[in-house]
Amino acid sequence: MSRTAVIGSVAVALAAGVGATIYLMQPDPGPAAPRAAVAPAPAPPLVREAPAPGPAPVPAEPPRPARRAAAPPVEAAPEPAAAPVEAAPEVGTLRIGADVPGAQVFLDRQFIGAAPVVAENVKPGTHQLNVSAEGFDSFAQAIEVEPGSRDIAVKLKEVRLDARVDVIHRHGIGSCRGRLVATAQGIRYETMDKDDQFTTALLDLDTFQVDYLQKNLRLRLRQGKQFNFTDPEGNADRLFVFHRDVEKARERLRRGDQPAAD
Question: Which CATH number goes with the domain that contains 227?
Fold first, then answer.
């Protein structure tokens, strides 16, 4: 069909108001040229799918060392036996009184109080007891303490005396040698000369004097014989100490203190 015929057909259709499908026809190109043979496209290479991953390989365990024979169980060393606990030694209790109230009491040189006083928890054994009061001779004695209670009565008002000294008694002609011994009960002269021996109470001395410079001790019995004593070695110190101790006891006896029993 020619181009003019086509245009005319379209115009007729539009004029008639009839809807029609319009086909646009391409002009006939004429006989088709022969097509060259097209080689088929090469097939895509065959891709093999990778196998699905399996479980991760478990590493092989290292070879285990050969088992050693089990060592015999080691027995724990027995604990040392605890040392036996020594029982605490029983202690003693001392109740200390004195005939002078308020006298100072010392045990092993430690002041424990004024008499009467109680010393508790005293270990058994030997202890030193000292008691003193103004105007009285001090009391000093070693005491044995045993478990339990013990009462100790200290008598400071008692006159205690134990003094002695070696002397030479000079006569008008010659001399004799002996010893003066003084206790609370009296004083005596011990000698081989029987005519010079005597024993008398401390208060029965009319004269009792020491002369340190002359190094002698003069003694006169009441209404009796007189003695002049010297030290065998010419030492006035021993005569002085003897006189001091005896005179101190005589003074206490004068004020009414009682002599201690032998």
Answer: 2.30.29.30
Residue type, 204: D
Token representation of residue 154: 């200290």
Count Cβ neighbours within 10 Å for each residue of 90-105 and write b for 16 or more, e otherwise: eebebebbbebeebbb
Range of the structural domain that residue 110 is part of: 92-154
> Domain tally for the chain?
2
8 Å CB contact between 231 and 215: yes
Query: What's the predicted TM-score (pTM) here?
Result: 0.53
Q: Note whether residue 24 is domain-resident.
A: no
* Residues 143, 106 contacting (CB under 8 angstroms): no
- 53: left (phi > 0), else alpha (psi -120 to 50), else beta? beta
Give 56-93 pLDDT, tens digit per residue: 555 556 666 666 666 666 666 667 766 666 655 689 99
Do 226 and 171 share a domain, yes or no? yes
* Domain CATH for 136: 2.60.40.1120
Is 244 found in the same domain as 184? yes
CA–centroid distance for 82 within its chain: 21
Could you identify the residue written with the tokens 């008002």? 157
